Amino acid sequence: MNDHPAFEDLIEQYLDQYRNGTAPDIKEYSARYPQYSHDLLEILPLLQDLEGAGHSTPRQTVPSLIIPENIPASDFRLIRKIGQGGMGVVFEALQISLNRKAAVKLLAPSISADPARREDFEREAQVIAMLHHPNIVKIYSAGSCPDCCFYAMELINGKELNQCEFSSIKEIAEVGLQAAEGLAYAHRCKIMHRDIKPSNLLLDENRELHISDFGLAYILRENKEMIEDPDKASGTLRYMAPERIRNGINSFSADQYSLGVTLYELAANRPFLQERTPKEMIRRICEGSVPPLRCGQTDFDIIVNKSISRDPNARYKSMDEFATDLRHFVNNEPIDAVSVSLRRRLLLWTRRKPLAAALSVLSVVSIFAFLTALAVGYVRTSSALKLAQKNADVADTVLSDIFHHVEKQPPSPNGTNLLAALMPYYQGIARQQNLPISKIAETNTIIGICALRTGNYPLAENAYRRLSEIRSDPCILNQLSDSLRKQGKRKEADTLSRQIAETCSDSDNLTDRYETARALKALSADPQSKEMFQAFQIIQNLLRLDPNNAEYRFQYAVILGSNPRQFHSERISGIEPNAVILLNQLNQEYPDHSEYGLALVELMYQKLRFAQSIKNRDRDDFELALDLSNQLLGRFPNTPSIVASTVRFREAYANVLRRSGQETEARRETERLLGILEILFYSPEIPDSAKESLIHLQFLRAERLLRDGRTQEVNRVSDNIKRELNQYNGTRLDEFQLHLKELSKSPML
After folding, report:
1. Of 528 and 427, which is predicted with more confidence?
2. 322, 180 contact by CB (below 8 A)
3. For the chain, which terminal residue's Cβ has fewer other Cβ atoms within 10 angstroms, N or C?
4. Whose CA is closest to 150, among 482, 545, 627?
5. Taking every pair of C-alpha atoms in the chain, what is the biggest distance, in angstroms?
6. Are 519 and 478 in contact (CB under 8 A)?
7. Quick count: other Cβ atoms within 10 Å of Cβ 615?
8. Which residues contact 446 (CB under 8 A, 6 or more apart)?
9. Where are the beta strands (DSSP E) in 113-212?
10. What is the rounded distance in angstroms from the CA atom of residue 645 to the CA atom of residue 662?
11. In this predicted structure, what is the pLDDT of residue 175?
């Protein structure tokens, strides 16, 4: 496809350059593509006129950027330009603190001065940051200053799909499956991409796909459509669904259509539409017919042709269903889009299980002689026993795999509940097979860890109680104590902590001494207590023996942060004495351990509780905590403790800004938090605490607007609250509904 670019791609490429002020002369550009030269010379001047006419003020061009050594007040040094689009420029960069490559998208200076465009750019970064999926480009951080706005993301060493070669239809289907799974996840988070095309799908060196460029993404609440002016529809025409062009209807089905067109082009090895002008394309998409895909693989043809149906109701009901059929095709299984004959099912089975098929044929030939040669009763009994044993072996393996898989995933309430539901079955299998007690202990440990991460403390308590009956080591008792303390069972939790401290304080075992420190720290309600000082001394001694141990460093940082005046003088060689720096180092070294970043955010929240203003010496620390809170929410959006801490910290930060007279900054910070929570609100597994935080902030926003006399905006916020209450069934529903009723009765409305 590189050798024969589509006419529309050339137009889009030129318009991007024209909008950025880097477009070559039309004659020079047309000469590069002799097969389209005449048409380009005819249409590009017209499109230039249209671009100018669409703006009430002359369009500012984006000058070619001179690459600075780094971005002011950031951790990134720009290396080289690797791409350019309508919003700015993408650079390969080096993240200095971690010595890793990244891609930095820098908003063009002329656009940076436009508040609306700048807000769009920041929203794009927030949208991607909220999406944590292996097939979606990951955000590292974002930042801005008066003259600069950027976000940094993972650098994909690969190619756009329109630059890739594929050896088979199955290989194309595998890539399409990855894209469908990434989009299905985004749709479950209520986010529509709106610009799916080959150039926004990146394939890395390991043949893993990454969805990029969420610049046009939109949050579709309650699975409803969004209507835009068809004449101002954003996106790439050739991949745009008919309903978007014709009626301005944006729905998740339109993303499915765009992905279907992309797969059509890859399989057919030609552009989806042969028309050269936008007017001809629009007519063809909305009124004409496109030849159905015929690539020699009937099932793949059916899948793609269904996804690009002109009628949205004829497409798959969701991206999940689209992905399911692609997975069926890749695995040589019957697809759901069409009924499959018995003969077809048998053919697919033989492709899927060639060895089993061959053995089955052999078995059919010999089965009659085999059956007559054996005593039927004995065979049945023996076979039944062997089958039961075999099934138990398989079940043990499968359930073990499930437990370990869920443990490795980001915390999920549904995943934790699944493990709890499977535990009785696993115990039955363990009894049947006489599995070692260590297997039961292992599964209870996984349930306990997952339950603590997701805030299901009663489930964690049950898991650790079962574990304590199997083996009574101090780590298990500390975890049980934590789960009890989280439920307000302080007395029982303190009893366990004292038991650990008394039993293990003189142990020569380093693990026992570490657990003693944890127990003493849990007992200390006051940072200046005797127990806290004893815990600190133990951690100091452990760090001198093993200064690289992450858990020792973590506990040291937490105790140091709780009372820096008392502990700061106690220096340990090779250990950073600043709690913020140490926690940030741990978070960067171990990004999957959310407790490190969470502790930093909590530490900065404690600094804000009684502050009247943001002191200059602390400003960098607060900026770090703000960035980190975004990262934590993006990676662990279903963890109640992270949602609660992040909301609490960002609300406190906005309040301090407000108290110090920085009302504009305070309002902007509140709006950012609201934007984050609005994205989280519609995620499949978001905890009630996050929903409650958003609704609470919406009420605060409505009350401020009411005081300012901005009644029209109050009505808009009230409508948002009503919509959100329809998605909330928590314990505060009656309270929120009453508050909404009181708000609607305000004499100012």
Report:
1. 528
2. yes
3. C
4. 627
5. 94
6. yes
7. 11
8. 403, 404, 406, 407, 419
9. 139-145, 148-153, 158-160, 191-192, 201-204, 209-211
10. 23
11. 96
From residue 12, alpha-carbon distances to 254, 485, 729 in Å are 20, 60, 47
**The two structure tokens encoding residue 224:** 């409803």
Give the up-direction half-sphere exposure of residue 700: CA atoms within 13 A in the CB hemisphere. Answer: 15
pLDDT at 449 over 60: yes
Give the pLDDT band of residue 48 (cuts 50, 70, 90): low
- Locate 128 and state its tokens: 């991607």
Rg (CA), the chain: 30
How far does CA 351 lie from the centroid of its chain? 35
Spatial separation of the C-alpha atoms in residues 502 and 482, rounded to whole Å: 18
- What's the token pair of residue 656? 């301090």
Q: In the structure, what pLDDT confidence band is assigned to residue 176 with cuts at 50, 70 and 90?
A: very high
| Whole-angstrom distance, CA of residue 712 vs CA of residue 705 | 9
How far apart are alpha carbons 732 and 603 in whole angstroms? 28
H helix intervals, 524-615: 530-545, 550-562, 564-567, 579-589, 594-608
CB-based contact 647:673 (threshold 8 Å):
yes
DSSP code per residue over 603-636? HHHHHHTT-SS--HHHHHHHHHHHHHHHHHHHH-
User: How many Cβ atoms sit within 10 Å of the Cβ of residue 396?
Assistant: 17
Dist. CA 102–CA 392, nearest whole Å: 48
Mean pLDDT computed over 664-684: 75
**Phi, psi of 249, rounded to the nearest 5 degrees:** -85, 120
Q: Give the model's confidence band at 86: pLDDT under 50 very low, under 70 low, under 90 confident, else very high.
A: low
Distance CA(433)–CA(440), nearest Å, equals 12
Asked if residue 727 has pLDDT above 90, the reply is no
Q: Cα angle at 586 between 585 and 588, to 5 degrees?
A: 65
Whole-angstrom distance, CA of residue 350 vs CA of residue 16:
50
Sheet holding 201-204, edge to edge: 158-160, 201-204, 209-211
Instruction: Specify the 3-state DSSP secondary structure of 106.
Output: strand
CA nearest neighbour of 247 among 233, 230, 231: 230
Three-state secondary structure of 698-709: HHHHHHHHHHCC
Tokens of 15: 């318009």
Which residues have a Cβ under 8 Å from the Cβ of 250 and sit 6 or more positions away? 192, 194, 218, 220, 225, 226, 227, 228, 244
What is this structure's pTM? 0.49
Q: Which of 323-337, 547-561, 693-707 has the lowest mean pLDDT?
A: 693-707
Evaluate whether 737 touches 725 at the Cβ level (below 8 Å).
yes
The 8-class DSSP code of residue 241 comes to: -
**Hey, is 310 helix, strand or coil?**
coil
Interhelix angle 354-373/342-352, rounded to 10 degrees, is 100
Token pair for residue 623? 């900026």
Tell me the CA end-to-end span of the chain in Å, nearest whole number.
59
- Cα 595 from Cα 599, distance rounded (Å): 6
Distance CA 477, CA 399 (A): 26
DSSP 89: E
Q: What pLDDT was estimated at residue 256?
A: 96
Token pair listed for 683: 């995620």
The residue among 668, 705, 674, 704 whose CA lies nearest residue 691 is 674
- Report the Cα 540 to chain-centroid distance in Å: 38
Tokens of 188: 């479950």
**Residue 515 token pair:** 């657990």
